[in-house]
Structure formats: structure tokens, C-alpha cells
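can u do me a favor
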């Protein structure tokens, strides 16, 4: 992840070419991955990787409001992606719907597990 919120995928064969964006910083080993929230390009704010899976926190500003979302991809046989069920492999970043709009305080992946800590909604 770069400071400008762009996410690079050094394992370009893991994700489909449709999710890659042409970029002057790309080469045969590194591809820029476009993350979108409601069809708007989002800024990646955090990334965590485990054994064969990745979680990404992203946000986009829309009409003076910040939209937030968590996306997951990779191996999901142990339910570590949080996308519902236990898919063998998810090759496109898929939103973790239960975390839509939540402000993520901490994101950790290790082995075949993932943990996401969000801010309390109680004001």
C-alpha cells in the first residue's frame, strides 16, 4: 500500500486482470488493484495478509460523507474472509457486507484467521 492509498498486488496471478489498473509503477510482477465502493474508486487505508488471504480497508468521500468498507480475497475454506460461507477461493476482492460503514480501528490476519476491530457505534 502506498501513501496515496493505491494497493499493489505482487501476486498478480491471484487476482483477475479485470481488477488491475494500468499504471506507470506496474511491471510484470506488481499490478495496481482498483478498489471501488459503490462504483467510486476508493483509497486503501489498511491491509492485512494471512496464509493465502488478504483483507483491505478502504474509504471514499461522497457528498461530505465518508463511505467505508472492508474487502477480502484469497483462500476462504476456514471462513477467514467473512464473505459468507467457506468458499475455497475468492479471486476478486469481495466486500464484507457486515462491516459496511464501520470505522476499522485494527485489522489483523494470521494463518487462516482474520480479526477486525471496529469503533463502537454508541456515541
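np, heres the sequence
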Amino acid at each position: 500500500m502506498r501513501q496515496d492509498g493505491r494497493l499493489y498486488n505482487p501476486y498478480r496471478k491471484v487476482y483477475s486482470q479485470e481488477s488491475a489498473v494500468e499504471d506507470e509503477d506496474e511491471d510484470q510482477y506488481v499490478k495496481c488493484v482498483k478498489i471501488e465502493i459503490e462504483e467510486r474508486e476508493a483509497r486503501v487505508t489498511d491491509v492485512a495478509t494471512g496464509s493465502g488471504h488478504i483483507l483491505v480497508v478502504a474509504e471514499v468521500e461522497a457528498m461530505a460523507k465518508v463511505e467505508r468498507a472492508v474487502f477480502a480475497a484469497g483462500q476462504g475454506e476456514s471462513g477467514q474472509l467473512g464473505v459468507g460461507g467457506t468458499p475455497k477461493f475468492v479471486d476478486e476482492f469481495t466486500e464484507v457486507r457486515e462491516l459496511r460503514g464501520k470505522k476499522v480501528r485494527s485489522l489483523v490476519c494470521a494463518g487462516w484467521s482474520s480479526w477486525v476491530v471496529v469503533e463502537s457505534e454508541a456515541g
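DSSP finds no helices and eleven strands in the chain. hope that helps!!
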